[in-house]
Amino acid sequence: xxxxxxxxxxxxxxxxxxxxxxxxxxxxxLGIKDVVVASTHGFTALKLTEVFNPSKFNVVAVTIxxxxxxxxxxxxxxxxxxxxxxxxxxxxxxxxxxDGVDEAFTGFLSVKGVIAQTLYRFSQGxxxxxxxxxxxxxxxLIPVDRNVIAIAGTxxxxxxxxxxxxxxxxKFTELKIKEIICMPS
Length: 185
Fold this sequence. Notes:
single chain; alpha/beta; Pyruvate Kinase, Chain: A, domain 1; 7-stranded mixed β-sheet; globular
């Protein structure tokens, strides 16, 4: 099989629409009905619904954990309600590959820290794609027995999309990145 990967010249939110379009095309080609998207304040998730209709797709928006509320990075109740009214499931919880108790002990690198740093070598979006799939699977919002699409980005918006066979965090070695749809170069 031949497959094309789109590499963006620059990382960032300017790639959001193209990332979503490419992910949608691949979802249709593969018959994938589950989409997980990283969305801090809901803007990327709302943009996603312009293409992925939540009545036809299981759309899960994974937000940043409440531990970042002091920085103003957490989703407001109004932002959450707006997404839910559109039919999007919203998940906020501790991040699978960061933000846990081990981060309180700076200077120590945990196994999940090594995994996160390895995925960062691809891109921030790649790390977040894997992380949100683990989180959504752990919450029971996506299946672990079939492929899903994961979409994330660098800081804001979306610039990375993958096809992934999910797993629960405790069974991380069963997670398989099947395809890279797009990412920054």
